[in-house]
Write a structure and sequence with these properties.
The protein is mostly beta strands. The protein has a single domain, classed as Lipoprotein localisation LolA/LolB/LppX (outer membrane lipoprotein receptor (LolB), chain A). 12% of the residues lie in helices and 43% in strands. The strands form 2 sheets. A 13-stranded antiparallel beta sheet has the order 6-5-4-3-2-1-15-14-11-10-9-8-7.
């Protein structure tokens, strides 16, 4: 084990007052470890059922296919293709996540047969009518936030680190996030999102995870509750596959119009 990894393990495992480790240093070390554990999968495909529920309990369902390309030295590239219902069929969303600058995002609208660029000032807006914002569905790069370890506690039977994240990028819809991250698999079980006034806006919970390639964990279900609008969105994931041979060409702007 090299010196950097030894230091990282010490930061995570030793008591907070050992070696004068600050809550900020411990929080960053945990975030970097989580990122490192989810590096090296190359590319990924999956299928998604999105269940939208309004405050009156009325429901609507959308079917989506997703593909993602891991990018070395920058954020991931991803594309979401809507298969149903009919009014959104063929809609495609392309995202280039970046580490230190605003993400690039585009939406292809088949009815208009044109590609619309999503403004960097509009990342807090709802994604396709769901309770997930555009910034929620971007890959969460470490340098996009500052970190602070708050405490260790049990959540739904899981041993977790509780971290406070504050965005470092402009135009975020949040002042902070509070994350309950599993100490064993380094994946979140719960995230609280606080709006620009500092009030609790949404809560995201994860139901369970499956393990792929003997290393990578992916959720089976995510539930987002909006505490202001009383609306919710449930994402149910299936058919994950890796090493599909995807390349950057599968994620250029022209690929939006070719998406089927």
């Amino acid at each position: 084990m090299n010196k950097r990894k030894i230091l990282l393990c010490c930061l995570i495992l030793l008591p907070l007052n050992a070696w004068s480790v600050t809550p900020e240093e411990k929080g960053l070390a945990i975030a970097k470890e989580a990122d490192q554990r989810d590096t090296g999968w190359g590319d990924q495909k999956s299928e998604l059922t999105m269940l939208l529920k309004n405050r009156h309990g009325q429901e609507s369902t959308r079917k989506i296919r997703l593909k993602t390309l891991e990018v070395s030295g920058d954020g991931d590239k991803s594309m979401s293709i809507f298969d149903s219902p009919r009014d959104v069929k063929g809609t495609a969303f392309l995202s280039y996540t970046h580490t230190l600058k605003a993400d690039d995002q585009w939406l292809y609208l088949p009815a208009l047969k044109r590609v619309k660029r999503i403004s960097s000032k509009n990342k807090s807006g709802p994604f396709m009518g769901s309770e997930f914002a555009y910034e929620d569905i971007s890959s969460q790069e470490v340098d996009k936030y500052t970190y602070k370890w708050l405490r260790d506690e049990k959540f739904d039977g899981h041993d977790t680190y509780v971290l406070e994240l504050k965005p470092t990028y402009k135009h975020s819809g949040y002042t902070k996030q509070i994350i309950w991250g599993d100490k064993t698999i380094y994946q979140p079980w719960k995230i609280e999102y606080y709006d620009r006034k500092g009030d609790l806006l949404k809560t995201l919970t994860y139901k369970s995870y499956n393990k792929y390639l003997d290393k990578y964990y992916r959720p089976t279900e995510m539930f987002m509750q909006n505490h202001i609008t009383k609306k919710s969105t449930t994402l149910s994931w299936s058919n994950y596959s890796f090493n599909n041979g995807l390349t950057a060409r599968d994620f250029d702007r022209n690929s939006l119009k070719r998406a089927r």
